[in-house]
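Dissemination and training. As part of the outreach component of the grant, students in the summer workshop were shown how a complex can be specified as a set of sequence lines and then modelled as a single object. The example used during the hands-on session is reproduced here so that future cohorts can follow it. Participants entered these lines:
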Amino acid sequence: MEAILDPLIAGILQSFEPLNFAMLILGCSVGLLVGALPGLGSVNGVAILLPVTFLVPPTTAIIFLAAIYYGAMYGGAVSSITLGIPGASTAVATVFDGRPLAQKGKADLALVTAAVASFIGGTISVILFTLFAPPLAEFALKFGPPEEFTLMILAFATFIGLSGDSIPKTIFSILIGLVLATVGLDIISGKPRLIFFDIDGFFHGVNFLVLAIGIYGIGEMLWTLEETKGEVQVHKVTSSLKSLWNNVRKLKDYFATTIVGSLIGYFVGMLPAAGATPASLMSYGLAKTFSKDPDSFGKGEPAGVAAPESANNAASTGSMLPMITLGIPGSPTTAILLGGMIIWGLRPGPLLFSEHPDFVWGLIGSLYVANFFTVIINLAFIPIFVRVLTLKFTILAPMIFILCIVGGYAPTQTMHDVWLMLLFGVVGYLLRKLNYPVAPAVLAIVLGPLAEQSFRQSLLMSQAEMSIFVERPLSAVFLLIAILLAAYPTMSRLIKNGKTAE
Amino acid sequence: MKDSRRNVLKIGLAAGLGLAVSVGMVGNAAAQWEPKKPVEFIIMAGTGGGADQIARLLQGLIEKKNLSPRPFIPINKPGGSGAEALRYLQDKAGDDHTLLVTLNSFYTTPIIQKDIGVDPSKFTPIGRMALDTFLLWVHSDSDIKDLDGYVAKVKGTGQSWKVGGTGSGQEDSILTAMMEKEFDYKVTYIPFPGGGTVAKNLIGKQIDSTVNNPAEQGEFYRAGQSRPIVQFTGERMAAYKDVPTAKELGHDIEYYMQRSINGPPGMSKEAQDWYINLFSTLYQSEEWQKFCVDDGLDCTEWVAGGDLASFHAAQLTRHQELIAAVGAEAITGQ
Amino acid sequence: MKVRTVELLMALVLALVSIAIMIKATDGLSISWVPGKGPGSGVWPFWLSAAMLVSCLMVVYQWFRGTTPESRSDELFMTPETVRIIGITVAALFLLLLATHVIGLYFSMMLFLIFYLRVMGRHTWLLTLVLSLATPIFLFFFFEGALVIPLPKAYSEPLFYPLYDFIY
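and obtained this result:
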C-alpha cells in the first residue's frame, strides 16, 4: 500500500506547486469552454498545449493536459444539455434526458447532476487506476476482436428498450446509421466503399459529429423554430446558491446509478478500441432497463443524465490506461498526448511506469486534483450557461447555426462535411416530423464501425467459423449477458401484465 | 495571388522600369518568400500513427525553434489509404501553403486504386525526413528463434497462421505478400487500425506474428515481451545488432518506408526552396536525429528537391514491379 | 400536403435511396460470404441497405393498412407559416455555405447574422450590428489564434494577412 500511497501523495502535492496549479486552473477553464462548443473536444484544446509545452517542464504540461481533458469532458455535457447538441460522441446519451430537462426549465438541475456524476465517475476511476493499473492492463491485452464484437452486441442489447413507437421506423433508423458507418475505406479489404458520386469527401467516411450536429444541431433548431415561432424558449431560470445545493443533494436519489455507471465506464473505457462512447451508452441503457420507471427516461429523468455522465468521465480516465501502459492511443486526445510525450523524450510503453515514475505519478496525481477543481469551476459557470436559454430564439438560433457550421468544419477541415451536415439536418427534421426516431441512427454510426471491423477480424482469425464467439470464455459471457438484457424488458413486462391480469 | 503579382510586374515594366531592375525585384522577392498564412500539413494517415507522430513532432519543433512566421497545422486525411489526401493535394495545384507528409501509400495507393487519377511524380518534392524500417516479430513466449524455424512453423500451421497488419494495401501487407511468395506459404492477414494496435494484439497473443516498425514494437521488445526474427534492411540496424537481415540469410527481401515532405504539383520555386531550407534545418537538428535513433529510423542521408524526385521515380517503378509480382489481389482482400 | 401523403412519399423515397445504396455497394465489392474469410467487403452495406428497403416497404404496408397514426392523419404536414420560417432558414443556411466558398466563412456569417437578426428577428440595428461583428471577431481570435484551426476564407484570404502578423 505504501508503495502506492507515497508516490501518489507526492504526485498530488506536485499539482499544488504554484506554476502547476495555475496551469491546472487555466486548463480546466479552457477545456470547459472548448468542450462546451459543439464539435470541439479536448483534442482541440490540446493545440493550445503545444506552445506551452516548450516553456514548462513535462510534468507541468501533463497537468495542464489532464486539466483540459477533464474540462472538456464536463464541457461536453454543457453543450448536450443547454443546446441539445452532443459536443462529442461521448455526450450523445446525455442529450436524451438533459435536453428535455432543460426545456422544462430544469437546466440547472441537469447541469449539476452532470457535474457531480462526472466527478464521482472520475474519482472512482482514478482510484481504480491507482490501485490496479498494471494487472488491468494485462486484462486489457486478453481482449481481442471476438470480445470487442460481443461487447458491441452487448451495447446494442442495452438499447433494446430505447426503441420508438414504430418498429419498422426504428429499424430503419438503426440500419441507416450502420450503413453510413461503412462509407469510406474498408481496412479489411483495403477498398473504398460507397464513395457516392465519386466525391473525395466520402473517402474519410461519414464522421459521427457530422450526423450528430446535423440532426441534433440543425435539425433540432428547425424543429424548435417551428414550435416557438422565434419566441423565448425557457422563461423561468433559477440559479441561487441554495438551489444549487438542493440540486447537488438530489443526486443521492441516483447514487446507485452513478456508481454502476462509473464502474461500467472504467472497465469499458479501459479496453482498447472501445472507449467512452459505448461506455456511456451502455450505462444509460442499463439505467433505463433497471429503473423503476423506465418510461420516464427520454422525457427528462435526471438519472438519465447521471448514468452516461458518470460513465464517460470514468471511461476517459480508463482510456489513459492503455496509452500509458501499452503506448496505444485509446482516444484521439491520448493519441496527441502520445505525440507530446515523444517530444519530451518519454516513451509510452510497458516500461514507462518503472522508468519514469515521477511522470506517471504526476499524471495520476493531477487527475485527482484536476477532477476536483473542474467540478468546482463547472458549478460556478452553471448560472451563466443557464442564462443562454433565456435568450430570444431569433438570437439563439442563428448563433447556434454558426456554432454548428464551425463545429462541423473543425474536425476534418473540409466544407464537404458541413454540406453533409446541413443535408442531415434537413432530412433529420423531416423524418422526425414523421415520427422516425433519430437517436438509434446516431448510436449506430458510433458503434457500427467497431462492430463490423471486429466481427470480420474475428472471422479471419477463426477461418470463418462462427463458433469463435462462444468458444472464448469472455466473449461467451458477454453474449449471454446481451441475450439476458435483450430479453429483460419483454420479460418484466410479461410478468407485470401477468400480475395485473390476476 | 500569383497572378496579381505578375500583373503588378507587368504594369511596372510598362511604366518603363528597366528589365534589370525588375529581375532584381523578382530575385529579391524570391529570397524573401515566407508563408503568408498558416501552412496545412496534410497527413495521409490517421491520428496516432507513425506519420502523424512525425508531423506533430515536426510541427512542435518548428514552433519551438521559431522557424516559421506562420504555424504549421497538422490535418489528418487518412481516407482511402491516403487517396483523399492525394486528391486533395492534386486539387491544390499551385498552392504554396500546403504540404503532405507521406508514407509508402504515396506510391501504392495510386497503383492499386487506379481510378483516383493521381500521379505522385507530379508532386513537388521537398525533402525525405527518414526511412522507416520493418522487422518480423513474434511473441517472446513463442518457440520460434530464427527465420528457418518461423518458415517451418508457418508451413506446418498452414492458412490458420495469423499475421496482423495495418490494413490491406499498406506497407506491411506488401511485405507479408512478398514473404508468402518467397517462402511459398499462405497465411491469414488480419488488418487492425494502426501499428500500435497491431503490436498490442501480438503481445495479447491474438495474432501469431507481425511485421512492425521498431517505433511500434520497440518498447515491448525492451520489456522482453516480443522477439524480432529478421529485419528487412540492407544492413543490421544499430539497435538490433543481433537480428540478421533477410539478405544475410539469402532471401532478397529489402523494404523501407519513406517519410518525406512533398508539396502539391506546381508549387512555386521560391516556396519549394524555402521549405527545403526549413526541413533541412529540422533534419539536422539534434532533436530530430535523436528521434530517429530512438525510433529505429534511418536518417543518415538528406535527400531533397530533385534528388527526392528521382528517389520517388525509382520507388514508384519498384512498387509497380512488386505489386505486379505478388499480384494486386495478394495485397487487397475481398 | 397532408401528413399521410408525406408519410407514403417519404417511405418510397427512402426505399429508392436503399436501392441506390445496394447498387453502389456491389461496385467492385464482394457481397457474399468468402469461404475461410467471412463476409466480403460489400456484405455489410449491401445487406443492411437491403434490410432498409424491407423496413421502408413495411412502412408502406402499414400505410395501406392504416395502422399508424401518420398514415391516417389528414392534418397539414407543414402549415404555410412553418413552410415560410423553415424554408427561409434553410435557404439562408444554404446561401451561407455557398457564400463561404467565395467570400469565406467570416464574411458570409456576418451577412447571415445581419439577415437573420434584422429581417427574421426584427431586432434593432444596434443589436444586429454588434452581434454580427462581434461573433466573427471572437471566432477568429478563438479559432485561429488560440486553437490554431483556420476556418475557410476562400478569396477573402489576403485580407487576413495583416491579422496573421498580429496573432502569430
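Residues 239 and 296 of chain B are 7 Å apart (CA to CA). Students were then asked to discuss how this feature might be tested experimentally.
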